Amino acid sequence: MLEQILVLLPQVLFDGFILGFIYAMIALGYTMVYGVLELINFAHSEIFMIGAVAGVEVFRYLAPLIPNGYLLLLVAVVLVERMAYRPLRRRGTTNRLVPLVTAIGVSFFLQDLVRLIEGLWHNEFFLRMRTIPDLEGSFTLFGGAIFIQTKSVIVIVVSVLMLWGLTYLVNRTKLGMAIRAVAQDLSTASLMGINPDLIISRTFLIGGALGGVAGVLFALIYTTINPYVGFLPGIKAFTAAVLGGIGNIPGAMLGGLVLGQLENFFGTYLPILTAGNFGTEYKDVVAFLILIFILLFRPQGLLGQMVKEKV
Amino acid sequence: MSLLSLALSLVFLALSFLAPNTLTAFLGLGALGVAAFARLEPRVRTLNLALLTLAFTLFLRNSGNTLGLIGLVGILVALTTLPRIPRGIRVALGLAILLLSVPIAGFANTFIFELGIQIGIFAAMSLGLNVVVGMAGLLDLGYAAFFAVGAYTWAIFGSPQAGKFLQGNFPLPGEYMYLFMLIAVVTTAITGLLIGLPALRLRGDYLAIVTLGLGEVVRILANNLDHPINITNGPQGITPVGRPPIDWFRSLMGALGVRLDETTDYQLFFYLLVLAMIGLVVLANVNLANSRFGRAWVAIREDEIAAQAMGIPLLPTKLIAFMTGAAFSGVMGVIYGAQRTFVSPESFTLLASITILAMVILGGMGSIPGAILGAAALTILNLDILKTFSEFVRTSLPWIPSQVDPAKYERLVFGLILVLMMIYRPQGLIPEARHRAELEEEA
Q1: Which residues in chain A are contacts of B427 at CB distance < 8 A?
Q2: Where are its TM segments located (chain B) (predicted)?
């Protein structure tokens, strides 16, 4: 059994990285919005889904020209923030349930909206990514120990670029400074001449853009997509954000990578370790159990700091 | 105004004999609207509501059109919310609607029994979730998990399924269902404890996502525990789930002069059983709301830290709210399984949890009549109106692609309801008094 595990290990680690990068990109959206608004944006998983669907549609008609489908996605993000969340902030309700329930409602609404659009357009809402001959190649490393598809190289390159770009944006630019200021203290930031509404929508946009890229990459790798595909990656990416410490940007990246590894690890080895009694289908359970354990024993996450709740 | 309103009701009464069609039903709903919202003398209004009850009952008897059921639900809402109607009349009319009008309609169209039973099951569950979300302010997104545990508790032992992993004589006889309703209270309360212990230590928004995850875990378990030991029979689900024998009920109804046939006997039985359960649940809810626990829950909802400072032990109080809500859901799960004689994991998805949440929010968090109204409105919407609309689209709008079937778009509708309610009327359709005061203060 040990031998079997060792033989598979390099491949498992590599696939874990691919999954981890996708989770990391989605997790950043959760963590950034939580940082500025203290809101779990449930609808973020649907932004990811719209990214995936937009990716499929763009490849279907335009060959690899991502930006057009992308505009559509960004419009969706801004609309969600404008129509659903901003009216709530304006009213300034203190009830925490109100924004959460709104976010859940938006998430459900978007799932079926996409289904409706795809249904009217193609009379079908299970979508398949078009196969692109240039990307279908593959090669092996270390004498066949790791099997790599060309697509996965694209995923890694794109996500590393995106993560680096985001780090640069947040730490080195004026917009990044404003985002950090709003996250730290919204009312003081607004006294310093920052327009918090503008920064909040920019944050939604940036987080949404990352989620959308993750969606396109997801569609590229998994090829079959439907409007309900966002739910599980969404909730796992949230787990990743909590794992790294919610509100913490490097934490979300780390959390995503760790969770991707753990999930892939259990997904592959659970059937081997339990002699086939418990199969791959329990890998989702593993992610949720990890979430509960972190929240119980280290609620601030791996890189987060403990914040005392003040009265 | 009084005369006009009475005249409208009388015209509807006459038409419910002469022409019981859809147009007449809309006239009746209009008459109900006038009776409820126009400025009327309380006596005229009461008389009007009584007339309309009679008219809708006759309409349903003659046509079996489900629009009549919407009218009856409307009258029930009017009876519970409008001021200055004598208490005796409220109770008498309400009971007449529940015990006479709906069964009469059910004999004309058995689908109305089905609707009534589903409304009842979901109403009892929204009342349970109402304790958790409405009173204690704990956002539980995995509520369907408890429903699943309740349903499986009876389904496994009330069908041959238990014989696959236990020695003994299975299925258990149908009478055991009553016992299992009690056992389900215990098993779901324990599940509530197990889920609540880790989850309830967390602050509000984490709680939402953890319950969502754990709800999903329960569904995954139900879906996959067909191996190594076959406990839940996996995605195929369990069938046939036993029902209690109802010979005593048949002879009782026979003595009352009600003739039952093969399909309507169980439907009437389950309808009355569900009504009785709702009665119990409402009673429990009212008493809980006014008890020490109820006040502690509201205190926690309003301000956790202040509540703690006043000496309320947070975790135990929240746990009790969680377990109470779970227990209500478990009992209804047993009835649900027995009524459909079939239990499968796909009834207990996130969609089911969100549906129940939407019912509570539509009616008004913390409000008992609100939770029932929310359940009635969304169940009718889901099972009847969306399906009718689908039929309409299929027959009258052929240019719409066949994959676009409005009955499949519950998520769109429920999502929209949640967002619109939160933006425009967060206190719900029938707000709880305390909640209303609080939200008005904020505005």
Answers
A1: none
A2: 67-85, 91-115, 127-156, 176-197, 268-288, 319-338, 350-381
**Which residue does chain A place closest to B442, by CA atoms?**
A93
The better pLDDT of the pair A274, B374 is held by: B374
B163 in any annotated domain: yes
How far apart CA B157 and CA B167 sit, in angstroms, is 12
Q: Note whether B404 contacts A119, CB cutoff 8 Å.
A: yes
DSSP B236: G
Please give the interface size between A and B, counted as residue pairs whose CB atoms are below 8 Å apart. 145
Burial category of B184 from C-beta neighbours within 10 Å (exposed 0-12, middle 13-18, buried 19 and up): buried
Alpha carbon of A284: minimum distance to chain B alpha carbons (Å):
8
pLDDT bucket at A170, cuts 50 / 70 / 90: confident
Q: Cβ–Cβ of A235/B212 closer than 8 Å?
A: yes
Q: Which of A101, A116, A299 sits opposite B422 (nearest CB)?
A: A101
The pair of structure tokens assigned to B361 is: 């929010």
Q: How confident is the model at residue A72, as a pLDDT?
A: 61
The domain containing residue A211 runs over which residues? 2-297
Q: A203: closest CA among A36, A1, A18, A5?
A: A36
Give me chain B's average pLDDT, please.
87
B217 interaction partners in chain A (CB closer than 8 Å): 284-285, 288-289
Q: Percentage of chain B with pLDDT > 90?
A: 28
CA angle A141/A236/A227 to nearest 5° reads 95
Prediction pTM value: 0.88
Of residues A123, A282, A311, nearest to B401 (C-beta)? A123
CATH number at residue A250: 1.10.3470
Band of residue A77 on the pLDDT scale cut at 50, 70, 90: low
Question: B17 pLDDT band (50/70/90 cuts)?
Answer: confident
CB atoms within 10 A of CB A143: 6
Do residues A23 and A163 lie in contact, with contact meaning Cβ atoms separated by under 8 Å?
no
The pair of three-digit structure tokens given for residue B288, joined into one six-digit string: 């809980």
Q: Verify whether the Cβ–Cβ distance A112 to B442 is below 8 Å.
A: no
What band does B321 get if pLDDT is binned at 50, 70 and 90? very high
Query: Rounded to a whole number, what is the distance in Å from the CA of B306 to chain A's nearest CA?
Result: 8
Residues B8 and B126 in one domain: no
Expressed as residue numbers, the domain containing B58 is 1-108
Q: Per the CB < 8 Å rule, is B354 touching A108?
A: yes
Given B54, B88, B108, the domain boundary residue is B108
Residue A165, domain member (yes or no):
yes
Give the Cα separation of A198 and A211 in Å (integer). Answer: 20
CB contact under 8 A, A292 and B404: no
Among the partner residues A39, A107, A123, nearest to B403 by beta-carbon distance: A123
**Interval A146-166 mean pLDDT:** 84
- Shortest CA distance from A284: residue in chain B: B217
Chain A nearest-CA distance from B232, in A, is 15
Alpha-carbon distance values, B389 to A105, B115, B117, B191, B397 (Å)? 22, 17, 22, 39, 11
